[in-house]
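USER: If only I could read backbone structure tokens as easily as an amino acid sequence. It would mean a lot if you studied the pair and described how this chain folds. Here is the record:
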Amino acid sequence: MTSFDGLLFTLISIGGVLIVISFFAIRSNKKQSIKNVQSASEQEESTYDEVRNKILELNEYGEYLKSELDGKHKELLFLYQMLNEKDKELREKNQHAQSTVTEHVPGQAAEHVTKQVTDMNQENVEQEDFEQDEIEQYRDMQYNKKIIELSISGYSNQEIARQLNIGTGQVELVLNLFK
């Protein structure tokens, strides 16, 4: 064997070792790439889950708002109906009183009595308004008491509003006023 053959054998051996090392390097790079793809896929999936949960929460909140608005709308229609009935009742009382006065009292006295009846009707309306205001104030005080009790018990503003069927703004206002 000559020195050239030894050098050639050494170079071939080094080349073979480099080829084997490159196969291992390529193999480890593939494994690392697969791990990177898997972690990216897991992150993407967790992001999708998070977005999906947020969308579901928004949907629930939208349904809650819709039910709140429906409730307030029904309450408002009920109040309008009550007002119309009360107005109709007062008009009927007023017409009945005026017709009674004009039948029994002749001339200028009828006008004077009609004015007195109208004044009495006005006083009745004012008294009914005053009584209605007292009822509303009492109801508001009861709501305020319930709101504070529920807040002390550890309920959140949204839970209190949902339980009492009122708006969260009203709950926050009451809690801020009584703190």
User: Anything to note?
Assistant: The chain has four helices and no strands. Residues 3-104 form the longest helix (102 residues). The CA atoms of residues 66 and 173 lie 22 Å apart.
